[in-house]
Amino acid sequence: MQNRPSGFGNPWLQLGLSVVCVFASELLLKRGASEVAAPDDAFSWTGINGLASPLVWWAIVLIIASFISWLYVLRYIPLSLAYPLSRVVDILVPLGCWIFLGEVISTLRWCGIALVVFGLALVAQPIAKMEERL
Amino acid sequence: MTFLAFLFILISLVTFVAAQLILKKAMDFSATHGMRNSYFVSRVAIGVVLMTVSFFLTLGLLQRFDLSYLYPFQGLSVIFITILAAVVLKEKISARLTIGALLITAGIVLVSMS
Q1: Is there a contact between A44 and B60 if contact means CB atoms under 8 Å apart?
Q2: Which residues in chain A are closer than 8 Å to B69, comparing Cβ atoms?
Q3: Mutating which of B23, B56, B67 best tests the A interface, going by the most A Cβ atoms within 10 A?
Q4: Where are the domains of chain B?
């Protein structure tokens, strides 16, 4: 982690940006998919009709941006540290669903989400180490 | 949830994890052999195709289910990686990994019942 750039090139800032981009892209994809939803049409399982929504295209831009900043982050921060930190998005997404998308989340679902988040927090580091070797 | 939806959730996760690992292999290879060779180009192409499949399947699923319902299933990707590491790397599964995987599984069961 030597010669770490400062300002916009700061890897910690980029890690934050990457997380925000992933978070925003998930919400935009959901909004976009809902806009064009055609659940009775079997073809819509392919998701290709989703391209008709501009929100989906914005989500694609954000996914690419998150990917680029993530690759940049990995040049400076080891995966076994960056990956567990990036999992904060697992908390942000359900909160975003609740606050921004107005999804009704039952107590049962909140409990399930909490268990998944705890489980992910527990395994994030060993998983990152495995991924480095795979 | 229908069988079809569960199948598509599984496929979208498996393709995503496989794409990530294949792209990583390609990048590792390019560090020593450069990018102008058929091995690198074909691996990147396979990775991109798998990512695209995963993306569109997710887009199809999002037309039918809440994001707060679908999102927790991404926790399953961790279980795929654990199984893969056990098979490919003959890695021993630690108690921490086992407990984490059980928590994730239990959480997904609760979410899928909700």
Answers
A1: yes
A2: 109
A3: B67
A4: 3-113
The model's pLDDT over B66-107, given as tens digits with 9 standing for 90+, comes to: 999 999 999 898 888 888 888 887 878 888 888 998 999 999
For A99, the closest chain B residue by CA position comes to B68
Q: Which residues are CB-contacts of B9 (< 8 A; sequence separation ≥ 6)?
A: B61, B70, B73
Residue in chain B nearest A130 by alpha carbon: B85
Read off the pTM: 0.87
Residues of B in contact with A98 (CB under 8 A): 68
**Shortest CA distance to A46 belongs to which of B71, B12, B77, B73?**
B12
Cβ(B109)–Cβ(B76) below 8 Å: no
- Give the model confidence (pLDDT) of B3-29 as tens digits: 889 999 999 999 999 998 898 888 888
The domain ranges of chain A are 7-133
CB B62 within 8 A of CB A30: yes
User: Is A44 within 8 Å of B63 (Cβ atoms)?
Assistant: yes
This complex has an ipTM of 0.87
Q: Give the span between the Cα atoms of A47 and A53, in whole angstroms.
A: 11
CA distance readout (Å), A23 to A26, A59, A84: 5, 10, 16
